[in-house]
Amino acid sequence: MKRLPLLASALALNLCASAAFAHDPSEKITVLQDQMLKNAPGKKAMMIEVDYKPGQSSIAHKHDGTAMAYVLEGEVTSQVKGEQAITYKKGQFWYEPAGSEHLVSKNASQTQPAKLLVFMVLAPDEQVLIPLKN
Length: 134
Prior knowledge:
By secondary structure, this protein is mainly β. It is built from 1 helix and 10 strands. Strand 1 (28-36) and strand 2 form a beta hairpin. It is globular.
């Protein structure tokens, strides 16, 4: 298992999230896996855990790669540009095509934590999270 690319990915994600919320840290992002796909040359799969404290949210962003999210704990409100915001409960999931603008991703509760498992497929040179400009 290659630990250096995994560590670099985790640090890049945490730095991006922390920089956006220097006064109030954003969600905690943990890269669980980062593997090249043998059956899809030039693509890799990533498994990411996203932990939200009560009331916490992500910055508006997009992903170069395709993303699938599954709620492990709590409730998460998500909105992709052109669609209505939906609150997903534990055990529910959604799909975001590559390049989708993720306008809202937040813990729906002000009192309970929430946790997502995100699976992404992207090229090694593509960015996991690209902040949207206002």
